[in-house]
């Protein structure tokens, strides 16, 4: 592609001296296998869009401080080049914070090791970390800009900063950093349309384009922006919310396709639009984010279906066809095509064996010993699970213990027998336990359910996971040789399933899925299991929880192979089965059961 210059001329965009309007959709390359990028990007182009937008997650590209990853599913260059091959332009959002209902809003958990750092601010401790990451990232994305012959037309400065802070020095530092690193395409901010967020989050004095995020009443929302900024900039809804994300124990949020299409049509008649999301994808691994309401954290589910124009697997929904219809009405000259549609399959996995977690914990963990319990961040294990164990000598016939300052969910065991499960509000309360033996083992299994990705609790101390203060018996903290088992999802296959299994306690369940050469996408039906996560051929495909509303996990074809496929389920609630079904569609909790769960 030749060099193309996107310019802002008054209240319109110009590309190569011709008026230009963005008809864009969000696709997150990191929420789907690389093998499926073409499918989703093709469907975006087939709908009639001219641009794809994506965030860039810091916590995946620098999962370990100083170790950068831009390979395979994280090959942002390959994603952009695939879009370019289909005739799509690209909007990149390389800001250190992305929100996106993604773990910690995209920030790597290791930032929390510095207890004096103020994230999303001009604090030099934070800026130094951002600079190191951005310097490496921009080596990948600078050559992709339209000014260098690539398809990238714009880049984002920060994301919805006006809903968080008003440190204009921070925004200015980010801007100057991007310019110094080679950004020479227009830079934009994206905020809510109302006065307070536009005032706090925009930086128009540096000629940075203000854009808005909203999902309805576009005329009203655009007017709010022009009332503050004036009419001297192109109107752009950077996130036109066409659906919404989902949390455990809540109804799935749906939006009427016809109503959505008419609202998008109204927005396109006024300015540019980026559909958020066009294809949502999946929060594989432990990357789901978390909402907050007051002091309550509400973890989000593994699926990021979002009720988007493409479903979780990337196939068109009714929204796709309604949006394609209104684009044709507005722009009959745009070429549109039939979308690509994947197949999916049903199947049955064969039960192989099961084993108690306590029997194999040494085989599937890294072990760290310290005088007191350490946080997950200080253990360099910021995601998933940590088991804390300590030898306890009997003091009395009945003792009470307390786990002080832990996040997010705690299972307490004495001699491998479950005593209680505490969840946020209960953590820190007394755990009264009869003591029979002289020598005992205390075990505390702590799960990070996902860090808050938006709002004031982004700065909460509860973002530090594991045990922050310690474990008490009677009135004192227990110290001396705490053994911490860092559960490694990539090591589950190393568990010796010949070891013992007891019906109670955390456990591993192994299945084999034998496939011929004609396998397809599928969904693991986990209706008969309680809570945990699943690995398939060593790949962590996400968490499950019988609280609903989703009772299945999407399993893309790219994670499977012909022949034997190893499936291992880590389960903590003593709810399991020797049957594991693959469904050709998602499995949801019935509305009646979901309402009962919500009431509880």
From TrEMBL:
PROSITE patterns named in the record: GLYCOSYL_HYDROL_F35
Beta-galactosidase 1-like first all-beta domain: from which residue to which, for each copy? Answer: 373-485
UniProt EC number = 3.2.1.23
- Please provide the record's keywords in A-Z order: Glycosidase, Hydrolase
Group of enzyme by EC: hydrolase
Q: Where is the Beta-galactosidase galactose-binding domain?
A: 506-565
Reactions this protein catalyses: Hydrolysis of terminal non-reducing beta-D-galactose residues in beta-D-galactosides
User: What domain of life does the native source organism fall in?
Assistant: Bacteria
The family database entries (Pfam families) matched by this protein are listed as: BetaGal_ABD_1, BetaGal_gal-bd, Glyco_hydro_35
Sequence ranges assigned to domain Glycoside hydrolase 35 catalytic in this UniProt record: 13-329
Query: Into which family does the record put it?
Result: Belongs to the glycosyl hydrolase 35 family.
Name by which UniProt lists this protein: Beta-galactosidase
